[in-house]
Automatic annotation (TrEMBL):
PANTHER family per UniProt: ACROSIN-RELATED (PTHR24252), HYALIN (PTHR24252:SF7)
Organism: Leptotrombidium deliense
Keyword Signal found: yes
Signal peptide: 1-16
InterPro entries named among the record's database cross-references: Peptidase_S1_PA, Peptidase_S1_PA_chymotrypsin, Trypsin_dom
Protein name according to UniProt: Serine protease 27-like protein
Keyword Signal annotated: yes
Domain Peptidase S1: 30-73
One Pfam short name: Trypsin
GO molecular function, one term: serine-type endopeptidase activity
Keywords noted in UniProt: Disulfide bond, Hydrolase, Protease, Signal
One GO biological process term: proteolysis
Length: 76
């Protein structure tokens, strides 16, 4: 039995309290891609995590009103 999806959802819930959902960033960064207008892909999200030793960011996709799917290596 693969427990990876379950663990991902548990981690997502743990870090959801640190989420700044709905607050737009004035910084525009496009790395190796094409810039699109805001709202063109409404299911995509920007995740930002502050840790004592560094800050990191990653992208994710909205699964439903409670879960975001992102790369497991970013969370662990």
């Amino acid at each position: 039995m693969n427990v990876t999806p379950f663990l991902l959802f548990c981690f997502a819930q743990t870090f959801a309290k640190e989420c700044y959902c709905g607050i737009g960033s004035a910084i525009k960064r496009v790395i190796g891609g094409t810039e699109v207008s805001r709202g063109k892909y409404p299911w995509m999200v920007y995740l930002y995590l502050t840790k004592p030793d560094h800050d990191s960011f990653c992208g994710g996709a909205i699964i439903n009103n409670r879960y975001i799917l992102t790369a497991a290596h970013w969370i662990v």
